[in-house]
């Protein structure tokens, strides 16, 4: 049942290409993006002038990525907020606010209450959910289902990649409705998304390398994760996976913040995982990141670098180099996350923990 794997999570990591294919299927019709359920008018969509994304845990990290895509494509301000914080701080909401609620289960109490609060303020709600007919989609004005299939591992993997994909579809649907992108541009972006299952499949060739690395790092006291731009939410997710599965102190930082505090944490042999921006697509960010790696290496960190194939400049600074395919900037998280999932699972396994059922965690938390 685990498909010959030691634990479900590894099977689910390997199912990610199909999860993306299934999530994309049927959403590009007659040259345009379509949602699964749509109870808003075209005019409602055009009138939206503010987006809030609310979610918890891994879904929240996917939401952070939605901000990069929606602001870039739609020119609407986007705020991303932990669902458990959202309704307690009296956010400014109205008819022209779209609240995007992301939840694998569709039953998470914090997210559901955030949705209910948004509706009392007359905001529109769009749900991204992996469970057909769950409570959150039932209470929403529009729904896009991720089709990752049931996820057994308590720590989210394939649903995370599917959520990122769904977020981008929502971004394209909004851009199309608002006219901030021409239809040929929407078509081109969709094509790039459609190429991602293959890129993720290619990334799975790093699994054995990362498993070996995981065993080597299993005795570390802590692991830090650094990212910039879309690599920052990936760093947060890499750290969360490690906390959840390996019960290890792990933190994700925006690399630019390093010098404002976290660099004090660097000590000899501390593993630091760095998600490199694309060398071609983001040359400036790439060179800034190289300086960050230099700084941490000079202080004795053991650098684990996730970088695009052909990124020669980073090689001298990588104690371990994990190569991922070169893809469009916004799409890089779909490939850079994969080795971080494997790393967390394998460190946990090497420490003797149950990867599929981490202590104290539940797959879906229905109390606030
Ligand atoms: C947590 C799960 O309790 O809920 C996480 O352990 C998950 O893995 C989070 O990301 C949010 O769950 P959902 O179902 O709302 O996406």
UniProtKB/TrEMBL annotation:
<dbReference type="GO" id="GO:0005829">
    <property type="term" value="C:cytosol"/>
</dbReference>
<feature type="active site" description="For Fru-6P isomerization activity">
    <location>
        <position position="363"/>
    </location>
</feature>
<keyword id="KW-0315">Glutamine amidotransferase</keyword>
<dbReference type="GO" id="GO:0005975">
    <property type="term" value="P:carbohydrate metabolic process"/>
</dbReference>
<keyword id="KW-0032">Aminotransferase</keyword>
<dbReference type="GO" id="GO:0097367">
    <property type="term" value="F:carbohydrate derivative binding"/>
</dbReference>
<dbReference type="GO" id="GO:0006002">
    <property type="term" value="P:fructose 6-phosphate metabolic process"/>
</dbReference>
<comment type="subunit">
    <text>Homodimer.</text>
</comment>
<dbReference type="GO" id="GO:0006487">
    <property type="term" value="P:protein N-linked glycosylation"/>
</dbReference>
<keyword id="KW-0677">Repeat</keyword>
<protein>
    <recommendedName>
        <fullName>Glutamine--fructose-6-phosphate aminotransferase [isomerizing]</fullName>
        <ecNumber>2.6.1.16</ecNumber>
    </recommendedName>
</protein>
<feature type="domain" description="SIS">
    <location>
        <begin position="213"/>
        <end position="358"/>
    </location>
</feature>
<feature type="domain" description="SIS">
    <location>
        <begin position="41"/>
        <end position="180"/>
    </location>
</feature>
<keyword id="KW-0963">Cytoplasm</keyword>
<dbReference type="GO" id="GO:0006047">
    <property type="term" value="P:UDP-N-acetylglucosamine metabolic process"/>
</dbReference>
<dbReference type="GO" id="GO:0004360">
    <property type="term" value="F:glutamine-fructose-6-phosphate transaminase (isomerizing) activity"/>
</dbReference>
<comment type="function">
    <text>Catalyzes the first step in hexosamine metabolism, converting fructose-6P into glucosamine-6P using glutamine as a nitrogen source.</text>
</comment>
<keyword id="KW-0808">Transferase</keyword>
